[in-house]
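Instructor's aside before we start: the two examples that follow are unrelated to each other. I chose them only because their records fit on one page, so don't look for a connection. First example below.
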Amino acid sequence: MCGILGYVGERQDNLATFFLEGLERLEYRGYDSAGFAVLDRNGHAGQPPNGLPLFKEVGPVGQLATKVGRSQLPGSIGIGHTRWATHGGVTVANAHPHLDCTGSIVVVHNGIIENYQSLKQQLLDRGHRFTSDTDTEVVAHLVEEELASANDTPDYAPSDFAAAVHRAFRQLHGLNAIVVGSTEAASLALFRLGSPLAVGLNGVAALVSSDLPALSAYTDRVLLLDDGEGALLTLDQPPVRLDARSDTLKQQHFSTRRNGHLGSARQSDPPWTHSACTTPPPVADKGAYPHFMLKEIHEQAEVLARIAAYPAAPISTAAAMIERAFGTYFTACGTASYAALEATYLFSHLARKHVNFAVGSEFYFLEDFLVPESLLVAASQSGETMDTIEAVRAAKRHDSQVMALVNVPGSSLTRLADYVLDLYAGPEKAVVSTKAYTAKLGVFLLLAYTVAGEQAPGRAVLQQASVALSDLFSNGLDKQLRRLAGELAAHEHLFTIGRDVNYPTALEAALKIKETSYIHAEGFAGGELKHGVIALIEDGTPCIVFAAQDRSRAAVLSNAIEMRSRGATIIGIGPEREDVFDEYVHVPDVGYASPIVSVVPAQLLAYHLAIERGLNPDKPRNLAKSVTVK
């Protein structure tokens, strides 16, 4: 979740410019608050007694920029953070970075320190003063203690500082990434376990971030850190690899060769330069669109065209892995989980193959059926979703094979998996996922056709869906959904139903509406209405019905009639209008790709509902783009 950014390198006239720009790119990881610190002592007015420039503010990065104003902050070392609150409310005091008692040690953090309460009490008992309610602040005080116990003087070398951070990190329980700065050692020391962290290099600086795409604007090489690894970044010295997986800290310089490596921390060209398809731009912007969500909805036709042209070799290899597995299991979280659930229908219909599904947060409670011959297929936009990664670790405990469908090359999931399929959706910045969802559907559909020995027809169906989406956008779909959103915005309850391949579509549609507009929306399998759900229907209740031109059409239309007879307002989405529909949204018949074209009107409706209700669809409350905590 939280975004981390660090800089060690050539002195900048105003390091605030770098941090404000970089934190804005990381804002989608957490927008409760933002802050940064420049570790050079320059006596900036209004800052702590030692003169450490530290700026923190609640709300978006724009609020932080207002607070910084025209301040000139020259410097060569700094760290910054965008926060998604877990421990402690959304306040300036709880915003990162956090300081120790001396004000010379600065910490930013992503994750949850499960034993922070006991650590904090011990530190309080020893006289430490806390200024926040966060779990993060214990790290600053632990490092302070470790340095004090190991050094008789306030002067210490960067290696001593790294060793102290290592000892502090080893005391933390849970999955965490920390970056700690020291004004005395003029260094940053960082470690990761579970939560993502990477180091980027360019000609003038070493940068650290929790987000690989965020590094793309600044670096030409990346150090990919595995669990238990870290780095020491100092001025005028190459980065040092730190191995925290034992009581004794191991330190070794990274290779200076472009594609060299030491241990398991890999140094390479940025992973986003190795796409077999059209390389997406390294930095996403909204262009002419008012929000990222709307832009990403409109990009889906292009995404599907790329997947229709997916290189044959990786798809064939992945299909062969599925065919020879003794038990294939799909897992994912949130939006991605509905794509994985959809895949179970596609593999049944197209490949006549049984696959299993469980959401990532529950998968590791079901791991006992895994064997070495099993295959786990994990789908994730970011490749950093902690529950999905924990499911993968469960598979690894049983020596099962792991395949990943991921949109961020070089992410944690790609490095854990035995085989990876890139989603080729390009950067997705809106918190709610749209184009990455349809990209997953597209890849799963192509895989199912390939397992059935029909890869060419699968590509044709995807190309047909791409053209269909382009036609929908050009034929006024957006205008129709904007009008419909105006009619529905005052409702507090909304229901969606589908059957067969469009049951997961109903679930995803409801999730999108909940995420963006905060309307209570629920998705159901149409046949489940009479088993209890229909009790919720009353006069005027809006109900969206997904009615594809398939074998479930008659059944789902019957369900729509049942709801309408009890007063519901029926909004039909499908290839043909029916008398039961009070409102009809046309989508073309594209066969087994119907879930792709059918979900797009729901995405647009969710977007316009948010706008009608005065909400920012890119940044729903309480949500973050990448869920990197359990």
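Example two begins here.
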Amino acid sequence: MGGMNKYRLVKPILIVMMLLASAHIVSANDTDGDGTDDANDDFPNDPCADTDTDSDGMPDTLTTGCSGSYVVAHTSFEDPFTISSVKYTDTGDDSVDRYLWNNLNQPHVSHNQSSGTEMGFSLYYESNGGVGLTDGDYFGTVNYTGTVGNFTDGNNGYQMSDVDGVTTLILDSVNAEYVNFDMFLQDTSYETSTPIDYLVILFNGTNSQVQILNTTGYDIDGDFQSYLGNWTSVVTDISSAGAGTLEVTFSTNAATESLFLDNIEFTSTSQLVEDTDDDNDGWSDVDENSCGTDPLDSNDIPSDSNGNGVCDAIEGDDFDGDGIPNDRDPDDDNDGYDDDYDAFPLDPTEWVDHDGDGTGDNADTDDDNDGVLDPDDQDPLNPFICSDVDMDAADDCSSGTFDPSNDGPDNDGDGLADVGDPDDDNDGADDYLDQDPLNPFTCSDIDMDGADDCSYGTFDPSNDGLDTDGDGLADVGDPDDDNDGVIDDNDCAPLDASISCVDSDEDGVDDDGDAFPDDSTEWSDTDGDGVGDNADTDDDDDGWSDQDEVVCGSELLDSGSVPADSDADGECDALDPDDDDDGVVDSDDAFPSNPTEWADTDGDGIGNNADGDDDGDGWGDSTESDCGSDPMDGEVSPKDIDGDGACNIQDPDDDGDGVADENDAFPLDNAEWLDTDGDGLGDNSDQDDDGDQFVDEYESECMSDPLDPNSSPSDSDGDGICDAMDVFDDNESNDTPGFGLISAISVLALAALARRE
């Protein structure tokens, strides 16, 4: 694990960079399973709430009875690319510790979460002298079940085997209270001598590290037998660790030494508190409802003329006329129920609304809204209990609870006591419309004329509807409306005596047109294979199942209409996650129908494989790589100070001043290239190049070298004027009047100025 310490500090940074680089794709999703799409859910990770109108972090309402337990993040390795019976081969240097990435058409060992709901993960390799994965091994996402029997969630899992080194699977950073996962450790002989086989599973958080499993220093075969040869579920409390990553480190050197992982979930519980002022306008939701304003609209505020905190809508009125204004009256409608507990504070006839339907219990005929009127309801305030006429504690209105010794009669034997059965004789007419509700041979009296509309001789055309065949029996009760000898149930034209077709199996299709006249479940056989279309899974015998054709958009009854299948893999494009079979799912593929291209970083319509400038920044990909910039990031280009088209790394003269960088004291400043005195100021702007305290111009006039600190102007008489400019010799009087004196004074002043710092 020594190599792991080297990348502990950079690993979180790399993961953050990977997350930031991931494309954000909006898709219909309901992470917390509360029925509200994440795009519309203010609390997408908490099933107890979904709306926060005023964005104060408190939900408008909390779901009643919600436990608050929810999945923060998960993976069962269903999203990443997986292909059967293909090994993963590392094409890098097996002696270098580094992150491994995916190869085309090989199982994914790493995954960026850019679509779907599953977590991303990365894989880090450490060399221990072995060949690593360069020899090709079954590693990464897998759907082979020969070893594990089946995966615990979905069809895929993650396999780590024959590492010939050390690999660490690192999941995306997450903040949760618990982590649970399923693992299968293949039962074989694990090495206890160099190189040692070991497995370490831990959660590396910002606050602390939680060790879940560590076999280091132990014999896996002897000390961890319970994990061998079977799926084991592991649950661990990680609440104290803070945000972090689940890390699985495995060291093996044999193909039979395999670890399988599946169904990794991170869960937490809700800590939300309900908001009492949803629009944050200073008025509570309860007050706004009482005052008639919208508690979800911060612009709709109750009027309060005197500013006493009681809205004008209820202040000053005396609804019950008891002499006490409503704002001070605890019972505004004087019905004996305080306003705080009155569902209808301004209605003296109502005070309770148990089912919340807006109708008070006194006026509501079904207080618990269970469909059973209160007089017939055993518990009229409990929507889960109907009636119990015989008081045997069994609900008479529920099928299957009928007890003839307790629940009264069940006239039609349907398992529902008559007291709770709306149709006691099961003749299709509800009891309240049935002339004789206990006689299935008498029907209804729709016109309430006292005559059974379904009985011979009582037909009244003004009251009882139609009598097509004029036999005195209304059609509603006549088994053969057209009197053609074929009962209506078997008659394809029950109201036309001239058409006497037979439907033997009563499937609604005339026997003459029924491919299966004696089978009520079948009537057509499109492909003539002897199997009816209802039972036939491929009605047109074109090799595509009916179900697939419906989903794939082709005609299931036309053998000439087959689903589009671009890569001819037997899975139609509508269902195929990778239409062109290039190893990149269509949702991530910029060219889903072109197997040679899948990414277009700069969006120019040319795939990265053919595009010489992937990020469209005007620098070729190979040039950017050579110049140390990212060829996939259009915001990052090679540095080219002089703009000559050659990046600084490759340009021998970065600033283009004609002096090679190796000889240029200022390689990035084209105005400077020398600094003779090494004072950090280039000679072109430095007035004293050699740093001898004499300005360059003065030294030039005094015939000394301005680039040589050992060469200074000579001043034989020490009068501060160099000999070359001194108009007096040693024998002349220094107080000689005239032009000479003025010249000397001027020179001295110039010299003094030059020597100032």
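The longest strand covers residues 258-269.
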